[in-house]
Design goal:
By secondary structure, the protein is α+β, with helices and mostly antiparallel strands. 24% of the residues lie in helices and 30% in strands. The protein has helices at residues 80-94, 100-120, 142-145, and strands at residues 5-6, 8-11, 17-23, 29-33, 49-52, 59-60, 67-75, 128-131, 149-152, 156-164. Helix 1 runs antiparallel to helix 2. The model is unreliable at 133-141 (pLDDT under 50).
């Protein structure tokens, strides 16, 4: 509902690359993880816990109807094509006076690459989701336990989370 807030908790593991992309209700695209200031996975640390957004900042659902779509991709190998199309989109977003059609094409290239990755790797999706009872400051909170999972995968995992408001 409008006014609800949320935060995403990730803990990195050995031999896994995590990508978290938001396609929001305003049709905007955001790379939430990893931080790409110095390049993809420059500061990636095994075993580190990440809260998205960081610190005391939260995602808030605004008034008005819409759908927030989160794409979570975890892979044993880096998704170089995804990184390339995402970099292209992010570089266009930083520029001024980019034609809307060019920006939309770059955005669609990212969404298409996500679709292709999911389709190409669907055979690797033999996964095991287990409830997990830890999430930062929320230890012991029974309400949040239903939303926390540890996902064990061999090679690839992709899941789309939709938050309707």
């Amino acid at each position: 509902q409008p006014g609800n807030r949320m935060k995403i908790y990730l803990k990195t593991v050995h031999n896994a690359y995590i990508y978290l992309i938001l396609y929001d209700s305003q049709k905007e695209l955001f790379l939430l993880f990893p931080n790409t200031e110095k390049g993809f996975f420059y500061d990636y640390q095994i075993g580190k816990e990440y809260l998205i957004p960081e610190k005391k900042i939260w995602f808030y659902l605004k008034n008005g109807s819409g759908m927030e779509i989160f794409h979570l991709i975890v892979s044993r190998t880096r998704c170089k094509n995804l990184e390339e199309v995402m970099n292209e989109y992010l570089s266009l977003m930083e520029k001024q006076r980019v034609p809307e059609a060019t920006l939309n094409n770059a955005k669609q290239a990212v969404l298409e690459e996500i679709r292709v990755l999911k389709k190409r790797n669907s055979i690797f999706q033999g996964l095991n989701e287990k409830p997990l009872s830890i999430a930062g400051d929320y230890r012991g909170d029974k309400q949040i336990h239903q939303y926390i999972f540890m996902i064990e995968v061999e090679n690839f995992y992709a899941k789309t989370f939709r938050v309707e408001h």
